[in-house]
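USER:
Try writing one entry.

ASSISTANT:
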Amino acid sequence: MMRLSHAVFSFFCLTLLPPAFAQPADFRTVFSSNAEVSATAVDKAGNIYLAGSTRSLQFPATPGAFQSQFRPLICRGGPVPGMPLYCPDGFIAKLDPSGTRVLYSTLIGGLEIDVITGIQVQDNGNVWFTGITTSDDFPVSPSAWRRSARRLETNAFVGLLDPTGSQLLYSSYIPGAQGRSVVVAPDGDVLVSGDVVSNRFEISPDSFQTPRYTSGDPLVVGTSDVFALRLGPDLSQLRWASAFGGSQQDSVRSMFLDAAGDVVLVGNTSSTGSRILEQQRFPLTSGALNRSPGNGDMFACKLRGDGRALRFCAAWGGQEYDLLYSAHLEPNGSLLWSGGTRSLDFPVTPGSIQINPAGAVIGRLSADGSTLDFSTYAGKDPRDWADTVQRSNDGTILVYGKTYSASYPTSPGAERPCFGGVPKAEEGLSPFILRLSPDGSAALYSTFAPYRLIPGLSDSFYTMVPFTLPSGILQQWKVDQPWPSKVTCLSNAASYRQRGISPGEIVTLFGNDIGPVDAVGPLISADGRVSGLVANTRLLIGGTAAPLLYVSQRQINAIVPYEIAALTPGLRDVAIEVERNGRIVDSFRRTVARVAPSIFTVDGSGRGAIAAVNQDGFLNSPARPAPRGSVISMYLTGTGIPLDGAHPDGSIALSAGGTPRESLGVRFGTVEGEVLYVGYSPGQVTGLTQVNVQIPRQETVTGRVVINATVGGEFAPNVGELFVWVQ
């Protein structure tokens, strides 16, 4: 059996120090578990507006609200047999800047389906809104442009709510459409954009339209076109209405008015690419960007302010599906945009950051629509996306997104370098925040973020208040300023994944003011064990002090006590508390698992080359690959209770032993290696498991080989992200 050399012991001491490069709709509100938020806004005073839909009979409308009662009508059966699913009503709510108090909350809707999808808040506190309805009794004003609708037909609506949430000042139907975005012009006119879904949409004479409308051809079921219209300030008079698109699905995400009064529409189209007949394509204009070969592409079109002609219409994407989620119109007319793609050939510009092909994408379209000033991949997993893009006060570009990858690259010193949202959350989808240089050429800062967030003003965002806190709805945080004294995430020390903790696992906690100003390493007590008290800091797991390997203001590395196995039969959760100077500074709970295996890596990031020692005693690397048939030692944590019983917490292993109760396997690519030894790593703490495994002799096992391990059938979580060098 091989033993760790002094050099490798030093390596593991470094591994347990801070890594050089580590790592809304169902969120908590007072409204109900049945509230879905589809539009948000923040006014100049910092008040927060939430809008969307709810199916809740207990929706908490405030006294004096325009509509206080939810009128239940069963739309269809619910997910549980015998439980009805009510048609939703729209709602708008206003919260104070602290996110702790509801200033008003009102329902808006008829008996059928009503959803608010877009809002704009005026300086006087009035809220313009638009959305989708199938109700024939949606509340409209007496002088509305269109006052009636057919029951169960899909129509758009637009309305104005007063600053108190008690009066609907104006409201009108928009037949044959779905509202997505609303903007108020400087003269008080109201512009609405969205999707045309039937031939009942009314296009005004001389407005721009594509041939389908001039020929009278019907819309194909399941497709939609793009519309924009302009109404007078009291919604009684239509100025103009324009509709255009191709033969497939075309949909608006956002609308803007530029400095000249032209209308900028951005969204997604499936009516591009070579498979679409020329006369049925989305109306791209000469000289505009046309990089649209695929199944679904992003578009940006500028419609003249009178609605009569297109200034330009551009589209871009790759061979697969591309979706634009968010856009921001710059003062010079250029357009920041963000979204997601499954295309490996998405158009990226030279010098872009390109974190990983496919996934989240970010870019900027020139003001004339002719070129991409920059365009880059910004995701790690093909399923990632960037759902909001903003220009910060300092000129940098701020992006909020979602990632499925625990190895999304976070910055050194990131507030949340580990994956998975709030500290007690298990792994899954996680938000990220990315700050780019003003020209988009460099990533300046990135971090994981709490599980739900709403972009705010001045480089801030809001998160839902954890259910464990007694009050509050949303909390406001600055993007890259230290959070208060608390744990921001707890993860496996090898993978930086947040999972259930297992007895004997080495874990890492990140946070603020959770340890001493000056970092301190492990203290060895008189009985030869790693101490659970370092620099007046303790980590209590299930009431037991965990052995501490490293403590600092922003990070604690510790070993989960073996005692929690006895405390938590049946895989329950345990309390985790950080204690400083005899005072609990933060606490939460975490699930206990039998095993939570993860493999240590060379750079301590939880991804890339694993920390493996070749048979000749040298660290595995491209310069020193391991021969096929030779033996390497690799190192895990989270392998659970040893077969022969656990040593005392914090013990140093003096010899071999400590074979895990659960079976362990190692796979090189698709080929199983032969495990020769698994157990304690002599000279190291007992939470570290050494595995000696023989590399398969197959010729396919060569070069940079993907490697993974299973313990008791549980995979190390970073599947496909770890490798070893073989010759």
Q: What stands out?
A: The domain at 500-591 is CATH 2.60.40 (Immunoglobulin-like). The chain has four domains: 26-175, 334-484, 500-591, 597-726. The radius of gyration is 29 Å.
